[in-house]
Records
---
Amino acid sequence: MVVALTAAAPCAWGTTYIITAELLPADRPLLAAVLRSLPAGLLMLALVRRLPSNSWWWRSCVLGMLNIGVFFALLFIAAYRLPGGVAAMVGAVQPLLVALLASVWISEKLTPGKVFAGIAGLTGVGLLVLQAQSRLDGLGVAAGLGGALAMAAGVVLTKKWGPPQNLIASTSWQLIAGGLLLTPVTILLEGAPPSSLSMLNFMGYLYLGLIGTALAYILWFRGIHLLPASTTALLGLLSPLVATLCGWALLNETLTPGQIIGALIILATLILAIRPKCTSARGTVTLSGFIKERRKSS
């Protein structure tokens, strides 16, 4: 159950690319990042009414910058400049980055199995998206790689600093910190927001804020605290898979045999890498255990 709920987050993120291309205003990636994070964070904070305490003030700023501010900005730049699957493929290097950073920062052993899983996942994503007729953009690729590195660092630091007293509150702090960081940059580079938004624009921002951000990040951060960092990162491979399936189902994009093989490699990698964790988690990693850990840390 822990793995399934955590996996729902990257599945939601996989829809970001089609929402960006079909529903959001053109050439406003930073505005999309701000409207995705700041309103959702303020809404969550209004619901829980809890502010950070002690070290969580600066920790929230750091995590908000990595997980939200920098990541969202680079994610939307990549989404605007690259086809959805290609943007997701570039980000698929994240499991390898997480495994490497986790071995240094939190002493998670860098095993050959983790490296193989990361390479296999990246290969699968490459087959999934690079068989299609796609254009590559240097700035878009660089943005995708930078976003993957920021998110990888955020995942490992989130694991390193342990669970906060209130998961919803801590998620809101990060969303607000990231949104506030992005706001002046957005105004400087993109100018004022459009004077009017269409109903489709509004629906796109609403979906990304509530489903793709608020709900997804609560599930994602919960999974980071309950699962090894490298295991959580591997679940991110579902994002490009969902992005490609959305293009196939909703935009009538054709799936080649190579793409189907890539999808099967991704699924096989996830099953082989995560199944042992699911088996052990049934007896050791539970919601009650998570609550006990939170009480100990408070």
---
Amino acid sequence: MSQPNLKLAPPTDTGLRILDTLNSSILCLDSEGCITYVNAAGEALFESSASNLAGRRFDSLLSQVEPSSILSKLALDSIAFTEHEAVITLADGREIIANYSIYPLDGRTTGDEIVLEIRQSEHQAQFAQDELNQLQQQATQQLARGLAHEINNPLGGIRGAAQLLQRALDRPEWTEYTEVILSEVDRLQSLTSKMLVPGSKMQLTQINILEVLEHIRKIILAAEPDRIRIIRDYDPSIPGIMADRDMLIQAFLNIARNAVQAIEDSGEITFKTRVGRQFTIGQITHPLVVQVDITDSGRGIPHDLGETIFLPMITDKPEGSGLGLPIAQEIISRHGGTIHLHSSDCGTTFSTILPMEKT
């Protein structure tokens, strides 16, 4: 039997170029079960180039030990077939969970070619985690509003005292410190006001995420000048995003302070920014997102706290309140984003994902 040649579309063929943008793996098989076409996602799934896959029997890509339902369905002359949550073991031993569909080409019930579409379910665990985060946020919101009410009252007194102190100071260089007090009080009053009103409208403006991180870096280094070293790994090409600046500062500041508390003696924290593409948050896939990773060199988070770390009052730090991370998650969620946790004995990374389109 002669092997068919894989005929890829020329660059001007819009239809096949569109197939290469899909997340689903698309394969065309001839009557002998040999591959005549595979898109870019298929190349990634089977970890082989289109030219190497051309002419190979599809069953050679699957495990010969663990049978797959795909092969039995391909043998049927059905009009079309779809199976959900199928366990597929590949020839190299990798196991994936996927939905797959079989379509006879041009609607033929028997004949030459069929189209096979494989859609991996790799985001399901993250869907479940995002849903859990949403439930946790509802509990956090009630507690945060109560705390915001209690915090809002003394802030007015602090501001008034700072203003009186500023008038009494006879050295201009000292007023720099009172300006910091007044600025932070105003920011906290704005933040608590938003937390007190359910569904209150955020003040969205175009902000530079790197400018926000630099502001936080200065705050952390001012408090821990000798103990903490901050490494910056920024992508300078990240465009501005629509966000509430004060709220975003509070979210990242809470995460950064958590990182500081995780370091017992001295250590380092890394601020890293990258652009992500086709990232799914909840049930929505965003074409572009910005990812901010804050990584510490601390002791890591105990495994039994991993799933509850975003609940209020949950902490493994003696000096921690258990409120910083839940508030950060609630703020990021209001911006349409999410926070993922990766922790080991070598440290912890909080990855904040924010959509780039207007929230």
---
Amino acid sequence: MTYGGTYDAIVIGGGPAGLSGALWLARYRRKVRVFDAEDPRNAATWAVHGYPGLQDISPRDLRSTLKLQAVDAGAEYEPGVVDSVEGAEDDFRVTLEDGRVFGARRLLIATGLKDIVPELPGLEQFYGTSIWHCPDCDGPSVVDRKVGIIGWGRQIAAYCMYMLTWTDQLTVLTHGHPPDLEQNARDALARWNIPVRQDVIERLEGEGDQVQRVVFHDGSTEDFDAMFFHIASGPGSTLAADLGCQADEEGILEIGKEYETTVPGVYAAGDIVPGSRLAIRAASEGARAAIGIHKSLIPEERRIG
């Protein structure tokens, strides 16, 4: 076993939440190290939208900018997969896949979520440019356009109600699955004239990176200007669960006002905690978690009251 040293905080995950957290921990003069598997959820997306000061920056460029800022401030960054985490507050042990072990007084979990992407011929060609999963991020790109929504779970009607913010030309595509819809959900879809088409999808077609139509197994087609999917998503890693952090049925972690999880010394930020899935929100939460970590590390002799 090779021991890599002890840190005030180790950040697991190098997206906007993790890198923002590392940046601010370094600004607070904390010894901090980031481990990043470099497998971001939004890798396929052509741009990050609505990030103040940055106009439609690519996910890769945003991460590169944030990483440079964090490293310049004093944080350490390493591409690497964390295999396991154990221990308790002030004495966590982080083990990498290559067997190296690092110590940490605090942990910041920023491993995000992973989406179940429909396995449909043609989808990969358009994913991230005219087919998306996040309405908050890409809904504004489809104002008044005809949009197909792939999904069949209990939340698909609520997803459509959310999408009405940008367009009322919606069609639910269940890809042969019986829709799991309660009566109030069916009523809502009917009230907004949103059809539910259960035909099996054969493939998606279009030109370049622009999806244009769905071809169904029976040979019929339907044209769309854009598409979204909402199947399911889950935690990007099991590390928080392994530590015993409490989460809801979807794996979203329970946190307090300082972004500390139910396990003392373990903090979390980004898509793995409750809220929207915006990059700007993740960056904000990373900073807030860093502040919580910093305050928790201030020695007693500097506290009043």
